[in-house]
Amino acid sequence: MARVALENLSHSYSINPTNAADYALKKINLSWKDGGAYALLGPSGCGKSTLLNIISGLLVPTEGRVKFDEKDVTALSPEQRNIAQVFQFPVIYDTLTVYDNLAFPLRNRKVPEEGIKQRVSEIAIMLELEDDLSKRSAHLPADKKQKISMGRGLVRDDVNVIMFDEPLTVIDPELKWKLRSKLKELHQEIEVTMIYVTHDQTEALTFADQVVVMQEGEIIQSGEPVDLFERPLHTFVGHFIGSPGMNILPCHVKDNVALFYGHSIELEGPIIRSEGRCEIGIRPEHIQLGTNGIPAVVVRAADLGQHTMVQTLVNDTGVNVITDGKPLEAGTEVNLCFDPRKTRLYSESRIATAVAQ
Amino acid sequence: MKKHSQRAWLFVLPVVLLVAFNALIPLMTVINYSVQETFGNNQFFWAGLRWFEEILQSERFHAALARQFLFTFTILIIEVPLGVIIALSMPRRGLGVSVCLVLMALPLLIPWNVVGAMWNIFTLPKIGLLGWVMNNLLGISYNMTVSPVAAWITVIIMDVWHWTSLVVLLAFAGLISIPDAYYQAARIDGASNWAVFRYIQLPKMKRVLTIAVLLRFMDSFNIYTEPFVLTGGGPGNSTTLLSIDLVKVALGQFDLGPAAAMSLIYFVITLAVSWMFYTLMTRNES
Amino acid sequence: MKLRTLIPVIYILFLLLPIYWLVAMSFKTTNEILGGFSLFPQRFTLENYQTILTDPTWYWGYINSIIYASLNTVISLLAALPAAYAFSRYRFLGDKHLFFWLLTNRMAPVAVFALPFFQLYSAVGLFDTHLAVALAHCLFNIPLAVWILEGFMSSVPKELDETAYVDGYSFPRFFVTIFFPSIKSGIGVAAFFCFMFSWVELLLAKTLTAVAAKPIAATMTRTASSAGYELGLLAAAGVLTIVPGAIVIYFVRNYIAKGFALGRV
After folding, report:
1. Which chains touch C (3 or more CB pairs under 8 A)?
2. Structural domain span for residue C208
C-alpha cells in the first residue's frame, strides 16, 4: 500500500514534441493518500489512460516523476512497482484453470504452494469464484473473466496500487452495477489504494472518494463527488457531470454585475475576474419556477419519475429546469428563479466568483 | 449466433461441384485401376485386392513409407519450432515487418521445379556455392550424387529453406493478433519470458500452428517435384520418397494397378494422420 | 547485435543465398560456369535473358503460366466467395465435415492422380488448354480461398447484413455494393495465395498441357534435358519465374499475415 504522488508530469507520444498539441499530458501534479479510492474521469482521448499507464509503469513519462511513498519509481518497471492493473478487456490465461490464473502472479514470485492455496481461496471467496476454481477460464462469461483479472491483482499482499482501466466496458448493464458494488466492498475490505479510469460519471462518482476530471491532457478539477457536482471549477466539469449537465448561459459583466439578457443575476459571491468570454453556470436542480424572475417559455417537459425535467427558452438560449411539480405544457410562460448560492460566473470557462464569506 | 439454414448449401454448391469434379472422378478412376490388371492395349482384368496385399507386404513399399515418415517427421520437428522462434524474434511494427515478410515469402513463390533446380545448382561440388565451400574451403567431402547422407541432408535443408517461411507467416499472424494488454498484464504479474511464451503466445498461436502442422504434414507427404529434380530419388533409392516411388511404378513400369493401389493406401494414411492431428489439436475448442 | 535481431537476419541470409547463386549464375556465360568456381560473374552477360525474351517457345511459357494462374484465381474466388459467406453466416447440415473434406483435397497424392486427371480432361476435350490447368488447380486453391475469405467475413459484424436488408437492399446488390468493399483486403490475400499456388505447381500443369498451354516450368525441364547443360539459361529462366510472385507479394505485404490470423480451423 502506498501514497501516490505525481510531480510535474507530462507526456508526449511524439519523439520531438514541439508545441502543446504534441503533449497527451500537460504538467500534472497530484497527491493521493494511501488506501483511498480515486477515479480519473474524462471523455475518451483526454489522457486518462496515458496517466494510468504512467502510474503503472507501462509508459515512461517524458518529464516529471512518479512517487510511491516518497520513493521515486519513475524509472521502475511495472513488476518492480508492485502494482496491479485490470484492463478494459478481460486478460486471462486461457489455457489455465481459474485457480491457476489466480495463483499465477504468486507462482511467478516464488511464493510457496501452501501460501498460494490459502491466499487464492481467500480471494476466490471474496470474488465469489470459489465454485469455478477448477474450471478452465477460457469459456467463462465476461464478468467472471473480469473478476479473475481483478483477483490476480488482489491475491498479492504486496500491491501498492490496483488500477482499473474502464474495467466494465464489456460487462452487461445489469451485471455492471453488481460488479461495481463488489469492487467498492472489496476496497473497504482490503484498503489498498485503487485508481479507477472511466468516462462514465456514474461509475466514477459511485466508486471514488475523490474524482479527478481531465480534459485534453489537463486536470481541471479534483475533489469529492459532491464538490464536483455542487461547485464545478470549470464549465466542462459542470457540463460533464450531472444529467442533464449544468446550464451554461452567455452573459455580460458590467460594473461587477452579471447580466443575462439584461436581467441582473445574483451570484454566490463577488466577481474576481471578468475578462474574455463570460458565462453563468447554474444546475437545473437549482432553478425554481416562480412568479417573479426571468421570463421564459416552456418548450418541452418530461416526467422523470420523481422529478420533472422542463426545457425552457429565454430568448434564444435553452435553460433546463428540474422541479418537483407537474409537467407543464409547451408554450406556457414561466419565470425562472436562480438560487443565488448556487449561481456562479465563469470567465473563459474557469470559475470567476469567490464564495461569499 | 449463426442462423440455421439449409439454403446455405446453394452458396457452397459451386465449390462442391468444382472440387468434386477434380477430386472424386480421378479418385474413382484410381480405385478402378487398383482392382484390375493391365497388359497394355487397354485390356483390363479383375485383380481384386491382390495389389493391395502385395504392396502391403512388399519391402519396397515399407522402405519408401519409412523414408517418407522419417522425412516428414524430420522437417516438422525442424520447421515448426524454427518458424516459431523466427516469428517471435521478428519486429512487430514498422518498416522491418514489411521487409521481413516480403523477403521471407520469396521461397514460397518459386515454382517447385525451380526450387529443385536452384538447389541442384547451389550444391554442385565444383561450381555450386555450397558444394564449393564445403569441399574446397571447409574440406568436407560433399557430393549428393555419391553420398546418400549428403543427399538426405540436402533434401531436408532444401525443404526447410522452402517451407519454414510458411510456418513463420502463420505464427507471426497469430502473434500480432495478441492485444498489448496481455503483455502488459503478464509484466505486471511478474511473468518470465518463458511464462509469457507458454501461457500467452503459445495458446494464442495454437490455432494457426494447427494449420501450419496440418499443411506441412500434407504437403510434405505429397512432396515430389523438388526432391525429384534435386536428386532424382538417388543415390540408389536413398531419397526415393513415396511420391517419387509411386511415379516410378506408375510411369516407369506402367504398372497402373499396383501404382493405383499404392496411392490409395497412401491417401488413406495421409487422411488418417491428418484427421488425428485435426481432432487432437481442435478437441479443446467449442 | 541482439539475438532478437540476429535471428531474422541470419534466416533471411540463408534464404537469399541460393537465390543469389541462381541470379549470379544467370549473368554468367556457359563457359564461365563450367570453367570453375567464381563468386561473382567475371564476364557479366545478359545473353541468357536475351535468349529467353526473344524466343517464343521460352516467353510463351511465361504467358501461358500467367494466363492459367490468373484464370484460376478468378474461378477460385468466384466460387469461394459465396461458399465462404455461407460458412461465416449460416449453420447447415454437414458444414463442419464439408470444411474438412475441402481440406483433404490437399492430401490427394497429385503424383499418381496425374494420369486420371489427364484422362478426365482429355475426355471432356479440355486437354492442352489454359482452362484445364486453371480448373485442375481449383482442387487445392478453392479450399484455401474459402478458408481465408471465411476468416475475413466472420470479422465483419452480422449487423451489417441486417441493416442492409432493412434498408431494402436485395442480396446480390448488398453483396456487391456493401459486403464486397468491407472484405477487400481479404479478397486481395486470397487472390494472392491462389495465384501463388497455381504459379508454383508443376506436375498437374505439365500433365494437362502439351504445346498450346505449356507452362514455363515445363519449358524449363524440357530445355534442360534436350539442350544439354545450359545452366546459365536455366538460371535466367528460374530468376524470371520469381519476378511475378515478388511483384504480387510487394503489393499485398500488409495483409499476408492478417489473412492467416483470421481463418478458422
Report:
1. B
2. 60-215+242-262
> CA nearest B211 in C: which residue?
C265
Shortest distance between the Cα of C43 and any Cα of chain B, in A, equals: 16
* Interface mutation target, options B93, B178, B189, chain A, most CBs of A under 10 Å: B189
CATH number listed for the domain at residues A1-82+159-169+193-242: 3.40.50.300
Taking residues B186-199, what's their average pLDDT?
Answer: 88
Q: Select the residue from C260, C262, C264 to test the B interface by mutation, using most B Cβ atoms within 10 A.
A: C260
Chain centroid to Cα C260, Å, comes to 16
B137 touches chain C (CB under 8 A): no
Residue B44 is classified by DSSP as E
Alpha helices in chain B (DSSP H): 8-34, 50-57, 59-89, 95-105, 112-123, 129-132, 148-176, 180-188, 193-196, 202-221, 225-231, 242-247, 256-282
Three cell numbers written together for A215: 480534459
C-alpha cell recorded at residue B1:
449466433
Average pLDDT over residues B189-200: 88
CATH number of the domain enclosing C71: 1.10.3720.10
Q: pLDDT tens digits, residue range A64-91?
A: 888 888 888 888 888 888 888 888 888 8
Top CATH class of A244-351 equals: mainly beta
Query: What is the total count of domains within chain B?
Result: 1
Asked if B118's CB is within 8 angstroms of C98's CB, the reply is no
Which DSSP string corresponds to A285-334? GGEEEESSSEEEEEEEEEE-SSSEEEEEEETTEEEEEEESSPPPPTT-EE
Residue A107's contacts (CB-CB under 8 Å, 6 or more residues apart) are A116
Of B121, B177, B274, the CB nearest to C235: B121
B87-119 confidence digits (pLDDT tens) = 999 888 777 888 888 888 889 888 888 888 888
CB B40 within 8 A of CB B254: yes
Q: What ipTM is given for this predicted complex?
A: 0.85
Chain C neighbors of B285, CB-CB under 8 A: 265
Confidence of residue C78 (pLDDT cuts 50, 70, 90): very high
For residue B147, pLDDT beyond 60: yes
User: Is C11 inside a domain boundary?
Assistant: no
Phi/psi at A333 (5° precision): -95, 130
Residue among B2, B86, B119 minimizing CB distance to C89: B2
Predicted confidence band at C229 (pLDDT cuts at 50, 70, 90)?
Answer: low
A158 contacts in chain B (CB < 8 Å): none
- Residue B215: CB atoms within 10 Å: 18
In chain B, what residues touch C83 (CB-CB under 8 Å)? 11-12, 14-15
pTM for the full model? 0.80
pLDDT tops 80 at residue A319: yes
For residue C139, what is the nearest residue in chain B, using CA coordinates?
B19
Could you tell me which residues come within 8 angstroms of residue A86 by beta carbon, excluding any fewer than 6 positions away? A146, A149, A150, A153, A162, A163, A164, A165, A167
- Is residue C229 situated within a structural domain? no
